[in-house]
Amino acid sequence: MPGAVSLPLVGLTHLRALAITLVFVYHYRLFAHPGWVERVGAFGWTGVDLFFVLSGFLISRQLFGSIVRSGTFSLREFHFKRLLRILPAYFVVLACYFWLPWIHEREALPSLWKFLTFTQNLGLDLRTSGTFSHAWSLCIEEQFYLLLPLALLVLLAMRARAVWLLPLISIFGLIARALVYVHRLAPISDENAFGTAWYEWIYYPTWSRLDGLLVGIALAALHEFRPQLRARLTAHGHRLLALAVVLWVAVYGLFVEPESLTGSVLAFPAISIVYGVLVLAALSPTCFLSRHSSHITHWLATLSYALYLTHKACIHVTQQQLAKAGLASDGSAMFACCIGTSLLAALALHLAVERPFLRWRDRALARRTG
What does the pLDDT read at residue 8? Predict the structure, then answer.
């Protein structure tokens, strides 16, 4: 039940629901849609960056918390928990995409090995590999789950302070995007070819999309290693929330024109900082986000991973079938139907796959620690 969630997590539950809502509306623009969806979904791509900030915070906090308590962490336990959280539902949806071509939302599907190695986001050309393209963000998360704990173990063995690494990696991303834009994208004159190349070289590559994860890591470090500073900041939850809104308005132009040179270089770190402040506000016990739970956001957050995996296929199939019955593909009624079928598919995947594996994982961990 939503009310059973501890207060600090209630705020993050609201943000996770916001993230999947932004992503859903943004991706709905790829299909026939009402005019208002185009306007509302223009900045919906930032929902993925909110997911990155949340993931960076939650995963890093687990590792940092273990380091604070015992000086290290179990790499085996970490990967056991993450693999059983991510892989079962992912493999089910992946099997559906390869065995059921009628659910494909685009013409072409990338090679299976790219999905199995979580490298599909690298060199992703929408013209030849557009189906299940939204798995790109999952690839980055899996790469993050692999590299972060290994980097932490190396740093622990070296007894090295790593604060300088976060801004250094962020600066690397700024330079990389600027160089790619100037030397590879700027010479392209055809608008369609430019758009496809921009996604391939700026939007999808791992080195371009680390900002949200870095902000999440920084928040986790603050939470675990600087509790007094964290307490002073989170004592002002509504001020943090207001600051997030002000920052969002200040950089709004970057969100709606991300394919410009300025947007390509600055949009990802800008929105990551905005969402970082928003996450900090949501963690504040004084902010209304952490003080009031909701059944709606609880279930949206619970189903967010399954919904992320399945929503494009559900929208495609729903529109295809209901259009045959005479329902306008670009109408609000179709939009409502697509929401309904997507939620039902996500619920089925959650109940049939996610929940059983999570329960088995928790029992296995309990036996080991008991």
Answer: 57
Q: What span, in angstroms and rounded, lies between the C-alpha atoms of 305 and 86?
A: 9
pLDDT at 219: 96
Residues 6+ apart with CB under 8 A from 338: 28, 31, 314, 315, 318, 319
Q: Which domain holds residue 32?
A: 2-369
Where would I find the H helices in 208-236?
A: 211-225, 227-234
What's the per-residue H, E or C state across 250-275?
HCHHHHHCCCCHHHHHHHHHHHHHHH
Of 277, 275, 293, 205, nearest in space to 239 by CA? 277
Q: Which residues of 345-360 are buried (b: 16+ CB within 10 A; e: fewer)?
A: bbeebbeebbeebeee
Coil, strand or helix at 112: helix
Distance CA 234, CA 35 (A): 39
- Which residue carries 């392209």 as its tokens? 188
Alpha helix (H) residue ranges in the chain: 7-28, 35-40, 46-70, 75-99, 112-116, 136-158, 165-180, 191-198, 211-225, 227-234, 237-250, 252-256, 261-282, 288-291, 295-324, 332-349, 355-369
pLDDT for res 2:
33
Q: In this structure, are residues 304 and 22 in contact, taking their beta carbons and an 8 Å threshold?
A: no
pLDDT averaged over 10-residue windows placed end to end, the chain, 370 residues: 48 97 97 92 93 97 93 94 96 97 91 96 91 97 95 87 84 96 95 94 96 96 93 94 95 85 95 97 93 93 98 98 96 97 98 97 84
Backbone torsion region of residue 118, taken as left when φ is above 0, otherwise alpha when ψ lies between -120 and 50, otherwise beta: left
**Dihedral sign from CA coordinates of 244, 246, 250, 255:** positive
Give residues with Cβ within 8 angstroms of 198, minimum separation 6: 185, 259, 264
Number of domains in the chain: 1
For tokens 């900041």, what's the residue? 233
Residues 127, 133: contact at Cβ < 8 Å?
no
